[in-house]
Write a structure and sequence with these properties.
It is built from nine helices and six strands. It is mainly α and about 280 residues long. It is globular and about 70 Å long.
């Protein structure tokens, strides 16, 4: 397998500005004009970024069980197990290397990101590149859950048979997760796989529910970024130390952790009271 980068190109006719004001004199490619226009629209309409949702426990279980039992999608299981078992950002996981793992101490070292970005010096070409965390909170050591350890060892055994990833990016090599062509994963490719998986599951679940005369347990639309939020929610549901959660998630601002914690514990509080209904004598 040759060492090479996964590279994609974007083209543009490139010499007209966008509208008036700030961008009127800026020679920018046409594919970036829409980005600037949308940014101005959002700003003028006080647009707020939609809140990410975590998968419910039922959705998470259904997603993993479907992959585990699918001949078509089973090869994705190690990757999604690591996503749901570490809470790492997508760039941290697709950039994870074998040397970042310590199977003996059962820890994972997070010290860099793999990003897909425009590289202007090479004609507005989009390439994979390595970046290091902007804050000290981004560099962290995560405990390796048993399920994560098994998934990573499974991936290692498979690569011992089919060959290791030989891609070199900015001097970094030994990447763990690869696509069928032997390159590192692209976040968009992972998102497309997620959509195919939950769509296939939902179709199967609807048919099963119809035959069994029950309501189907469907998985809502989600992307790879929701997996991080899902892990953080499960962690908040089972851990009371906010500082520990912040360090594991790599949040530079503890208010981010506290907001997710408040949301997760509020849901659990309601669930606890629903379970308590009719079980204690109060009148």
């Amino acid at each position: 397998m040759k060492s090479m980068k996964h590279t994609a190109h974007f083209s543009g006719n490139g010499n007209k500005g966008v509208g008036g004001g700030l961008y009127a004199c800026c020679p920018i490619p046409h594919y970036r004009k829409a980005v600037y226009v949308m940014a101005e629209i959002k700003k003028s309409h006080n647009w707020e970024k939609p809140k990410r949702h975590a998968l419910t426990e039922q959705e998470q279980e259904a997603f993993i069980d479907f992959i585990s039992n699918s001949d078509i999608y089973r090869h994705w299981l190690p990757l999604f197990t690591v996503f749901l078992g570490t809470g790492c950002r997508v760039g941290e996981i697709i950039g994870l290397r074998w040397q970042d793992l310590d199977f003996e101490s059962r820890t994972i070292s997070i010290n860099h990101n793999l990003i897909y970005r425009v590289y202007r010096q090479q004609g507005e070409k989009c390439e994979m590149h390595i970046t290091t965390p902007k804050t000290s909170a981004g560099c962290r050591t995560i405990p390796m859950l048993d399920e994560v350890r098994r998934a990573l060892l499974q991936e290692k055994r498979q690569q011992m048979q089919r060959g290791y990833n030989e891609t070199v990016i900015d001097g970094y090599s030994g990447f763990i997760f690869t696509n069928r062509e032997g390159y590192v994963h692209n976040p968009q490719t992972i998102n497309r796989a997620i959509k195919r998986i939950y769509t296939a599951y939902n179709e199967q679940e609807k048919e099963s529910a119809k035959q069994e005369h029950r309501e189907p347990i469907l998985i809502r639309h989600f992307s790879v970024h929701n997996l991080r939020h899902t892990f953080c929610t499960r962690l908040c549901e089972n851990e009371t130390n906010i500082k520990v959660i912040q360090e594991i998630m790599g949040h530079s601002d503890i208010s981010t952790t506290m907001n997710i914690y408040a949301e997760a514990t509020e849901s659990k509080k309601k669930e606890s009271f629903e379970n308590l209904q009719g079980k204690i004598k109060i009148c």
